[in-house]
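so ive been stuck on this for like two days lol. basically i have the seq below and the ligand is zinc ion, smiles is in there too. i just want the complex predicted, nothing fancy, no docking runs or whatever. if the output looks off dont worry ill sanity check it later, just need somthing to start from for the group meeting slides
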Amino acid sequence: MKVYCRQFYKIYCRHPFNTSQRVRVAQDCHTGHQGAKDLNFVMPDGKPMPLGTPVFAMESGTVAEVRRGLPPSPTSAGLPNNVVIKGSDGFYTEYAHITPGKRPNPFTPGSAMFWYYYNKPLTIGNFIKEGDLLGWVDNSGHTIGDPVIHIGRYDPGDARTLHDRPSPCNWYIHGVDAPYIDPFCDPGAYSGWAGPGGS
Ligand SMILES: [Zn+2]
């Protein structure tokens, strides 16, 4: 069993899909894919995960960047649609190749304020809770072909220049590429979720 020290490694306690599918790292950090991991899963019939698969926040934080309006273009070198969340530790987490969703709704479903907020778009400064909907897989920008989510992690600092800073690879996702029970994560909260990843 691998044992990571939280002083040197970041562990996200959940992955970005809401599914019982086994999530895998489709492309890991390497030179040319600096500090980022692409995640996806394969359907039981062998097909890749569908476009429109919902994407949820792996941790709480504040929306720092939202890019939308770019078309599905897996062979282009263009930028993807994305959402970037600034976590409580100051680091930024990017979810790319997704169409940003609606603002998280703090009101009771069915109430007048719920419907008022229902159509508000996700915008910079919105507070996001772990598990909130961020958007949907759209295969925008340059991907490896099949739909993936590109997860990047950036050092703290000015949100306007976050992509100019290091994108470290010293992070893991509980139940995906951290194949053990992390004592900092609540295992009860993840029953029914994807098991240890890889394929
Ligand atoms: Zn990527």
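The two ends are 18 Å apart (CA to CA). The pocket of zinc ion is lined by residues 27, 33, 36, 38, 150 (CB under 6 Å).
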